[in-house]
Amino acid sequence: MGRWEPNARGRLEQAALALYGERGYEHVTVAEIAERAGLTERTFFRHYADKREVLFGGSNTLQEFLVGAVAEAPEATAPIDVVVAALESVGEFFEERHDHARKRQAIIDANPELQERELIKLETLATALASALRERGVSESAASLTVQAGMAVFRVAFERWAKDAGKRDLAELIRESFEELRALTAGT
Amino acid sequence: MGRWEPNARGRLEQAALALYGERGYEHVTVAEIAERAGLTERTFFRHYADKREVLFGGSNTLQEFLVGAVAEAPEATAPIDVVVAALESVGEFFEERHDHARKRQAIIDANPELQERELIKLETLATALASALRERGVSESAASLTVQAGMAVFRVAFERWAKDAGKRDLAELIRESFEELRALTAGT
Asked: Can you tell me the distance from the alpha carbon of A146 to that of B139, in angstroms, rounded to the nearest whole number?
């Protein structure tokens, strides 16, 4: 065991984001990330399985948070409101990290391998949320449709927010995208 | 160039499905697929890049069909109706292939690598459909939300249909899932 390094995860993440942004994800090695962070490769691998995972370290936290919010929503709430409220409540989670989220998204958008990884993470998140809804007594098809609709809303809102200079709250953009989806599905 | 083999693609696809179903996707080689189909490995690789692609050979056809249906929809039609009608119209495409679709889905559901591949194909399809909607003058966010909603409807309907013994039309299940989504998003 190496010695404890204060905030090693955060330092590695910052270093990786900076290097990926400067040189492109493909051209950065784990050794370079560790060096930029003032840490060793060994420390890197204690925190992340590979250089891809540095970009997805937050997804478990996000999933736990959302699943918890769905599970704890008041009993009488309609499934779609449970999901949208859970998504709105992650606003704070991201709000402090706007600059980080924007940089991260630009790196992912530039690399097909990372886009695949993100898709899989989103699908895992959707599966976990659908399961949390089913535990509230929602049918399988309703849980699936509700969560997919919620994820669509989240993706559109998140993309807008990441491109935006932080002028608008993520929660506000989620609400707005949801209203847009509702109008679109109603609009026959 | 080897000699022309009648319906080599279809024979390879049938052989692969049968073998994947019998032994599991992981335990089947390209040589075995070719042998079962009465063809050579060389013929296999003229038609498919690898043993995974045999399962996704239809996705380009499906995408072209759907993009065409979106592009040709009457001008005044609301975006969500354009997408749902396009999806309903693929019913026939699948209806003749119920047994094939069911077997294929069971193989994909049993293998994470294939599930990833399917996610990527679905995302590619969604991107193409959103682009076809934007060409009809639909805004970027509306196109994205509409297509994601449509894909959610399609996935739920397709899953139901594949598990079903072919008792109900895919088009009918798509319409039903769409009505369910509409009720869910309206239901606050």
From this structure: 23
Tell me the two tokens of residue B13.
């696809």
Query: What angle in degrees, to the nearest 10, is found between the helix axes of A170-186 and A79-89?
Result: 150
* pLDDT per position as a tens digit, B135-185: 999 999 999 999 999 999 999 999 888 887 667 889 999 999 999 999 999
B148 touches chain A (CB under 8 A): yes
**B52 Cβ under 8 Å from any chain A Cβ:** no
B168: Cβ–Cβ under 8 A, 6 or more apart, which residues?
Answer: B161
The answer to whether the CB atoms of B148 and A145 lie below 8 A apart is no
Q: From the CB of residue A126, how many other CB atoms can be counted at a distance below 10 Å? A: 19
Q: Could you give the count of Cα atoms lying within 13 Å of A81 in the half-sphere of its Cβ? A: 10
ipTM metric? 0.85
Tokens of A100: 């980080």
pTM of the entire structure? 0.88
Are the beta carbons of B120 and A123 separated by less than 8 Å? Answer: no
DSSP B56: G
Q: In whole angstroms, what is the distance from residue B126 CA to residue B129 CA?
A: 5
Q: Name the minimum distance, in Å, from the CA of A22 to any CA of chain B.
A: 27
